[in-house]
Design brief:
about 190 residues; single chain; about 85% helix
C-alpha cells in the first residue's frame, strides 16, 4: 500500500499520471491488434498446430513488451532529466535529493513497466483460449476464433476505458475502437486472404 502511495505521489509531482494511462491504452491497443492480426493470419493459412500459433504469438507479445519497456524508459529518462534540470535552473537549487529528484529517477521506471506490460498482458489474455484448447479443454468455438473474439472484447474494453477517461459515452468510444479492429480484420482478409 505504501508503495502505491509513493508511486501516486511521484506521478503527481511529475504530472505524468495521464502519460501512464495513455501508454497503457496505446500499447494495450497495439498488443490486441497485433495478436488479432497474427491469429487471423494463422486462420487464413489454415494452420492446425496450435503450438506454432502460440509460440509465434507469444514471441510477438514478448517483443512488443520489451519494445514498450525499453523505448518508454529511454525516452522518459531523457524527458524527466530535462524537466528536473529546468526546474533546478528556475529555482537555482539542486533537487536531486528531493521528491522531485526521486520522481525524475523512478517515474521513467514506472512508465516503462506499464508501457511494456500492457501489450504483453493483453497478448496473454488473447492467447488464453489457445492454451486452454491445447490443454484439452473444449471451447464453444474453435480456438483461433475464440482468441479473435477475446481480442475484439479487449479492444472494446479499451475503448470503454478511453470513453470514461474522456468523460464521453463509453459505448460510443467502445464501438469506435471495435470498428477500428473490424476494419483491420477486413484489410487483413482482403490483402492476405486472396
Amino acid at each position: 500500500m505504501r508503495l502505491l502511495q509513493q508511486v501516486r505521489l511521484l506521478l503527481n509531482i511529475s504530472r505524468t499520471d495521464d502519460i501512464v494511462r495513455r501508454y497503457f491504452v496505446v500499447n494495450g491497443f497495439d498488443g490486441a491488434l497485433t495478436m488479432m492480426g497474427m491469429i487471423i493470419g494463422f486462420l487464413i493459412s489454415a494452420t492446425d498446430d496450435l503450438m506454432i500459433v502460440i509460440n509465434a504469438c507469444l514471441a510477438a507479445g514478448i517483443a512488443l513488451g520489451m519494445s514498450g519497456l525499453s523505448s518508454a524508459y529511454v525516452s522518459e529518462v531523457a524527458e524527466r532529466k530535462r524537466a528536473l534540470s529546468k526546474l533546478e535552473e528556475a529555482m537555482i537549487v539542486d533537487l536531486q535529493e528531493t521528491a522531485h529528484g526521486d520522481a525524475a529517477r523512478w517515474v521513467p521506471v514506472w512508465i516503462a513497466v506499464v508501457n511494456g506490460a500492457a501489450p504483453l498482458f493483453i497478448s496473454l489474455l488473447i492467447l488464453l483460449p489457445l492454451w486452454l484448447s491445447s490443454a484439452g479443454l473444449a471451447l464453444p468455438l474453435p480456438p483461433l476464433q475464440s482468441a479473435i473474439i477475446v481480442a475484439l472484447l479487449l479492444i472494446f474494453m479499451l475503448g470503454v476505458l478511453l470513453g470514461r477517461i474522456a468523460g464521453i459515452s463509453w459505448l460510443r468510444s467502445g464501438v469506435q475502437t471495435m470498428l477500428i479492429a473490424l476494419i483491420t480484420a477486413a484489410l487483413i482478409y482482403l490483402i492476405t486472404g486472396i
